[in-house]
Structure formats: structure tokens, C-alpha cells
Write a structure and sequence with these properties.
By secondary structure, this protein is an alpha+beta fold. It has 2 domains: about 30 residues; about 90 residues, Ferric Hydroxamate Uptake Protein, Chain A, domain 1, CATH 2.170.130.30. It contains 2 helices and 8 strands; from the N terminus they run H-E-E-H-E-E-E-E-E-E. The strands form 2 sheets. A 5-stranded mixed beta sheet has the order 2-1-8-6-7, with helices on one face. Strands 3-4-5 form a 3-stranded antiparallel beta sheet, with helices on one face. A hairpin with a 6-residue loop joins strand 3 and strand 4. The model has no long low-confidence stretch (mean pLDDT about 90).
Length: about 130
Amino acid sequence: MKQKNQTIKFTIATLVLIAIVAVFLYVYNRNTTPPQEGDKEITVQVIIPEEELKEYTISTDATTLREALEEEGMIKGEGTGVSFYITEVNGRLANSANEEWWSITKDGEFSDLGVGSINIQDKEKYELTLMIGW
């Protein structure tokens, strides 16, 4: 009987784990667009409070936003892969002592993904906004 209970618990735990992984994969795939190969033109606005908005048009064959911005020399950051985050845009360093950080939005909507995971498409518009406060 004890062996049967352990088997049932193990089976239920395995099924729950599979369900959790399936949900994460669904959410990830729903929030990412497939990469578009070839030349694309994207618009990037740099928004810093109390400064004039700057808008850039970038022509690139990059597949991710990070690649496109790094090609232009617009960003610097820390971390690698999916843990990479932007610390500097166009020479403006976000000061963590002042709780400053760079936000990424696409057409005004906050991104759930990091800059290295955002696949870009032709004619898309992104905003890099210096935010103050966690």
C-alpha cells in the first residue's frame, strides 16, 4: 500500500511539472514573434525625462533588438544571454543609486522579454525610456 501511494504521488508530481513547463512554453511562444530574416527598418525612440525625445531609424539585418542596437552602438549592458540588461543608451548611464533603469516598450506597450529575446520585424517601433524608481 505504501509503495502504491508513493507511486501515485510521484505520478501526480510528474504531471504537475509537465503542466507547468507546458504553460511556460505556451506563454513564451505567445509573447515572441519569429525572427524575420533580411533587411528591416525599425524606429527607436530614446526618452529621457526633462530632455528632448530622440528618434532613430535603423536599417538592419539583425534578428533581435539587442543585435540591431549594438550594431548602431546605441546600447551597453551587463549580463549575458537572456540575463543581459541595458545599462546605457547613447552614452546615458542609468544610475542605480538613483533607482534609474532602462525600460523597453514596443508601440507604448511594456515588453515581457529582455532586449536579447525580442525578435524584430520590419517597420516596428520601439521606445527606450529612462525610468526612475523601482
